[in-house]
Amino acid sequence: MNAEAGRIIAAQELFRSDELLVRRVGGLGSSVCYVTFASYTDDRTLERPGFGEDYFRGCGIDAIHVVSRENRWYQHAELDQALAAVAERTRGYDRVIAYGSSMGGFAALRYGAACGAGVGLALSPQFSVDPSVAPFDRRWAKDVACIIFRDDDHLPTLPLQYIAYDSCDPNDRRHFDLFAARSPTLGIRVPHGGHPVGSYLVETDMLRTLLQEIEVGTFDADAYARELRRRRRRSGHYFSMLARRMPAHRPQQKIALARLAVELQGDNVVYRSELGAALDAAGEFEAAFAVHQHALAMPYATMFQRHHLMLHYEARGDYDRALSIVEQLIAQHPAVLWLPRERKRLRRKRRHMTWLGRLGGRLGLDGVLERLLY
């Protein structure tokens, strides 16, 4: 594949185990090399593209991509072998940058120096998901319960790391503070950028700027923050986060913000589903159903759009249809750990509704008790 005349992109596998893959996409003659670590995924395969792979190919920048099959925050016994394979191929570059987002951001900052990187860039990274180190963050508790944590205290730390994070997110803010206390760190505050902040930065065209300035060592944090604030109204993700964080007692404001996100990025299926959820929360079920149906018909619809439809039926009290959807999702995505919890919750609510219906019938209350409790 030719990026431009005289430059050949060669993909080369540097390391493979059952759980980890290291793939180099290079031969471009660039003086910069990125080492990227894949993010959390529901696509449990090693054959997927690396983090940022298409972008770096298009820019003519060499990159080495580390991909994991499971969401184990790279706590694999063979990780040292994989890191050594990366380090062997980063020698000779003028600048090596470790890069990742969320789970991948954790790995970039924790393992980047062992790969030969002198700089780390992470979007919304976790300092750790080990409950003994970061007990405040339980967002991935089911995944974390399956992890046997490595002892990585012997590994070198990066001489400089950049962290872009949502300063309004208490979990991500605490992770940043832990990183900053451990190594030289420059924080890039992205208010209401969400987790992770990558979508916000892409939609404002500020991720490209961030990468380019870090590559050449000219990044100015204050100037970047000013420009990011100036462009924030270009981002549907920004309005989506504001909608999610709007208190429940202000449903119309939540709907208005969710609509702004859809108007800005009408091809984004996630924002459309979130608009449907906001309408559901306001009790505007007919309008919500139409939005969910639209989202399901969009080209990039995934299991999450069907999950939103499931939540729509739950909000309407139609537990049979909601359960039918979740059963299909479990059959099609058996590795998704949170779906069985959804099924258990729905079954419990359906039992309660059945019991209340019988009680209301005996007492002549019809649906009064149901409306009081639900």
Entry keywords:
48% helix; Rossmann fold; globular; 16 helices; two-stranded antiparallel ribbon; 374 residues; disordered N terminus; alpha/beta
Describe the structure.
The protein has helices spanning 53-59, 79-90, 103-111, 141-144, 170-182, 198-203, 207-216, 221-230, 236-245, 251-264, 269-281, 285-296, 303-315, 319-332, 339-363, 368-373, and strands at 2-4, 7-8, 10-16, 20-26, 32-37, 62-68, 95-101, 119-123, 161-165, 185-189. By secondary structure, it is an alpha/beta fold. Among the domains are: 2-190, 3-Layer(aba) Sandwich (Rossmann fold); 317-374, no CATH class. The strands form two sheets. The protein has an eight-stranded mixed β-sheet, with helices on both faces. Strands 1-2 form a two-stranded antiparallel ribbon. Helix 4 links the parallel strand 8 (119-123) and strand 9 (161-165). It is globular and about 70 Å long.
Outline the fold blueprint.
Elements lengths: L1 E3 L2 E2 L1 E7 L3 E7 L5 E6 L15 H7 L2 E7 L10 H12 L4 E7 L1 H9 L7 E5 L17 H4 L16 E5 L4 H13 L2 E5 L8 H6 L3 H10 L4 H10 L5 H10 L5 H14 L4 H13 L3 H12 L6 H13 L3 H14 L6 H25 L4 H6 L1
Question: What does this entry show, briefly?
Answer:
By secondary structure, the protein is an alpha/beta fold.
